[in-house]
Specification:
The complex is a heterodimer of chains A (about 140) and B (about 180). In chain A, helix 2 packs across helix 4. Chain A has five helices and no strands. Chain A has a domain of about 80 residues. Chain A has about 140 residues and is mainly alpha-helical. In chain B, about 65% of the residues lie in helices and about 0% in strands. Chain B contains eight helices and no strands. Chain B starts with a helix and ends in a 5-residue tail after the last helix. Classes of the chains: A mainly alpha (about 140), B mainly alpha (about 180). At the A-B interface, helix 1 of A face helix 2, helix 3, helix 5 and helix 8 of B.
C-alpha cells in the first residue's frame, strides 16, 4: 500500500454546499438577534440584562405583584362592610391594592393582565366567587 | 482582509461596526469549521449563529492575550460540541469522544454527492477521534499553526502535533484503500 497521498489533488474541496446568499443572510440574522438582545442605551434608561436573569426577575416581580394584590384584596375585603354594592367594593379594593404597587409593577401587571388569559380568568373567577359569597 | 487587532479596536470604538468587520472576516471560516464537525448544514447554521452571538456577548471577556482567531475557533468548537451533544440528549460532547459524527449519516440537501474524492476525504476525517479531527481540520483547512490549534483546543503544541501526525497517517491509509 502507498505510504503517501497527494493532498494537492483535492486541495480544500469539500462535498458540502450552502444555499445561495446564505452567508449574507446569516450575518443579517446574527446582527438582528444581537441588536434585539442588546437594549440600546438611553432608549429605556435600563441597563442590558442577560436573557435568563431578565426572565427570572420578571417572574419574581410578577409573583410579588400578584401576591400583593391578592393579600391587599383579602385584607380590604375583611375590613370593609359587605353590602349590596359588593362588586363595586371589590373593584375598589383591587384598585386600592393596585395603586399601592410601584409603577414598574403596575406596568408589568397590566402587561400580564392583558396578555395572560389564565390571570384574566383567575380574576373573573375571583369576582364570581365573591358574588356567590355575598348572595 | 482586516487585521484582528483592527477588528478588536473597532469593536471597542463602535461595537456594531466592529462586529460587522468580525463577521465579514470570520463568518465563512467559522461556518466551514463547524460544518466539518457537525456535517449537516442546518446544524452548522444553528451552531454558527450561536457562536457569533456568544462571541458578541462575551467579547469583554477576551483578555487580549493569545490569538483572537484561536479564541473565536474555541467558541465555535464548543458550540459545535454543544449542538452535537444536544442531538444525543447530552449537555455537550467532550473532545475525548470517539468520532463526533459519521459522514454516512448524512441526508442533507446541501451536499455534493458527485464529488467522490472529496466525500472520501471527509469520510476519512470524520472517522477520526475528535482531537485528531480537530488538529487535522484546523491545520489543513484553516492553516493554523500548532500553537494556535493548541490555544483553540485547550491542548499543548506537542499534543496537537502528535494528533495531526496520527490523523494524517490514518487519512492517507484510508485514501489509498479501496473503501469508498
Amino acid at each position: 500500500m502507498e505510504q503517501n497521498y497527494d493532498f494537492s489533488k483535492i486541495g480544500k474541496q469539500m462535498p458540502y454546499t450552502v444555499p445561495d446568499g446564505f452567508f449574507d443572510q446569516l450575518e443579517e440574522r446574527v446582527m438582528k438577534e444581537w441588536k434585539e438582545d442588546a437594549i440600546p442605551a438611553g432608549e429605556s434608561g435600563k441597563t442590558k440584562k442577560s436573557g435568563k436573569a431578565t426572565v427570572v426577575r420578571m417572574a419574581l416581580r410578577a409573583a410579588i405583584a400578584i401576591a400583593a394584590c391578592i393579600a391587599l384584596f383579602l385584607v380590604v375585603k375583611k375590613v370593609l362592610p359587605q353590602g349590596d354594592n359588593t362588586v363595586t367594593d371589590d373593584f375598589d379594593s383591587v384598585e386600592l391594592a393596585f395603586n399601592n404597587l410601584s409603577t414598574d409593577d403596575q406596568d408589568y401587571l397590566l402587561e400580564v393582565y392583558q396578555e395572560e388569559l389564565i390571570l384574566d380568568n383567575d380574576l373573573n373567577n375571583l369576582n364570581d366567587l365573591n358574588n356567590e359569597e355575598s348572595i | 482582509m482586516t487585521d484582528d487587532n483592527q477588528i478588536i479596536s473597532q469593536i471597542r470604538e463602535n461595537t456594531e461596526k466592529g462586529f460587522r468587520l468580525l463577521m465579514a472576516k470570520y463568518k465563512e471560516p467559522v461556518y466551514w469549521h463547524i460544518r466539518r464537525l457537525v456535517v449537516s448544514h442546518t446544524d452548522a447554521q444553528d451552531a454558527t449563529q450561536d457562536t457569533f452571538l456568544r462571541i458578541f456577548r462575551s467579547f469583554s471577556q477576551y483578555s487580549g492575550e493569545g490569538s483572537f482567531r484561536a479564541w473565536i475557533f474555541r467558541i465555535a468548537t464548543n458550540e459545535a460540541l454543544r449542538l452535537l451533544g444536544r442531538n444525543q440528549g447530552k449537555a455537550t460532547l467532550s473532545l475525548d469522544e470517539a468520532p463526533l459524527v459519521a459522514l454516512t449519516m448524512v441526508a442533507d440537501s446541501y451536499f455534493d454527492f458527485g464529488n467522490t474524492e472529496a466525500i472520501k476525504l471527509q469520510k476519512a476525517i470524520t472517522a477520526l477521534p475528535a482531537k485528531q479531527q480537530l488538529a487535522f481540520n484546523l491545520h489543513y483547512y484553516d492553516e493554523m499553526s500548532y500553537r494556535e490549534i493548541a490555544e483553540a483546543t485547550g491542548s499543548t503544541e506537542a499534543t496537537v502535533k502528535v494528533n495531526y501526525h496520527f490523523a494524517k497517517e490514518k487519512i492517507i491509509k484510508y485514501m489509498n484503500s479501496n473503501d469508498t
